[in-house]
Write a structure and sequence with these properties.
Length: about 240
C-alpha cells in the first residue's frame, strides 16, 4: 500500500485550506464573494498561485459544490440512520431535512441549487440531476425502498408526454444504475418512463416549494410555512398512495 509523499500531503492540506476559505466566504458573504483574488488575500498568497491547485474559478466552485453536497448527504444519512428501516419514513425525513438545511444554509443552497446557468457557480446545476453524487444517492435510495416495499400508485409510461420521452430516457438510465447499486431490491423493469416521470415531478415540487420559501417568494405572507410544507408532503404521499404521517 502506497503512502502519500510529504509533498502530496502538503498539497492536499493546501487544497483543503483553499476550499475551507472559499466555504467561509460563501457562508459569510454569498456566492459572488467566492473569487480567486479574495481567497488568495485571505490565505496570504498570490491569486496566480491558486492555479497550481485549481484550473479556474469554475473548477474551484465545482469542488466547493461537491463539498457542500457531501456534507448535506452526511447530515441526512446521520439523521435517517436513527429511523426505522422504512423507505417511506426515511424519504419524507429526507424531504424535511433538505428544507431545514436550505433554510439554515441559504448561501450554500444558493450555490448548489439556485445558481442559474451561466451565472454564479454555473457548473452547479441541479444536485438531483447528478444522481450518482451523495445527495442524489441518499434521496434515491430511500425512494428505491419505497418502490420495492410499498404498494404505490405508479403512473403508466403511456401517459408520459411524447415531447419529454428523450429527456426522461437519459435520466431513466441514471436512475436504474443508482437504484441497482443501492441494492434496495427494486426490479429494474419497474423503473420505466412512468416511474422516471414520477421522480422528476416529485423533485420539482419539493425543490420548487423549498426555493420559494428560502427566497421569500410566496405570493402572500405565510405566518405558518411549516404547515404549508407538511400539507404539500401529505398531498404528494396521497397522490402515490402513501401517507407522510
Amino acid at each position: 500500500m502506497s503512502h502519500p509523499t510529504r509533498r502530496g500531503r502538503a498539497r492536499a492540506a493546501t487544497e483543503q485550506d483553499i476550499r475551507r476559505t472559499a466555504r467561509k466566504l460563501l457562508v459569510e458573504q454569498g456566492p459572488e464573494a467566492v473569487t480567486l483574488r479574495a481567497i488568495a488575500r485571505e490565505l496570504g498568497i498570490t491569486a496566480p498561485a491558486l492555479y497550481r491547485y485549481y484550473e479556474s474559478r469554475d473548477d474551484l466552485v465545482e469542488n466547493l459544490r461537491l463539498d457542500v453536497c457531501a456534507d448535506l448527504a452526511d447530515d441526512l444519512a446521520e439523521e435517517i440512520a436513527e429511523l426505522p428501516d422504512d423507505g417511506m419514513l426515511q424519504l419524507f425525513a429526507i424531504c424535511k431535512g433538505f428544507r431545514r438545511w436550505a433554510l439554515t444554509h441559504t448561501k450554500e443552497f444558493t450555490l448548489v441549487f439556485a445558481s442559474p446557468t451561466g451565472g454564479v457557480g454555473s457548473t452547479a446545476g441541479s444536485a438531483l440531476s447528478r444522481v450518482d453524487e451523495p445527495f442524489g444517492r441518499i434521496f434515491l435510495a430511500a425512494a428505491g425502498r419505497v418502490l420495492a416495499r410499498h404498494d404505490i400508485v405508479l403512473p403508466s409510461a403511456s401517459g408520459v408526454p411524447d415531447e419529454l420521452r428523450d429527456d426522461l430516457k437519459t435520466f431513466q438510465e441514471s436512475l436504474v444504475t443508482v437504484l441497482v447499486e443501492s441494492d434496495q431490491g427494486v426490479p429494474v423493469e419497474k423503473i420505466d418512463l412512468g416511474v422516471t416521470y414520477l421522480m422528476i415531478q416529485f423533485w420539482a415540487r419539493l425543490y420548487g416549494h423549498v426555493t420559494l420559501e428560502v427566497f421569500g417568494n410566496y405570493p402572500i405572507p405565510m405566518s405558518k410555512p411549516d404547515v404549508l410544507f407538511e400539507a404539500m408532503l401529505a398531498d404528494l404521499a396521497r397522490e402515490i398512495g402513501l401517507y407522510s404521517g
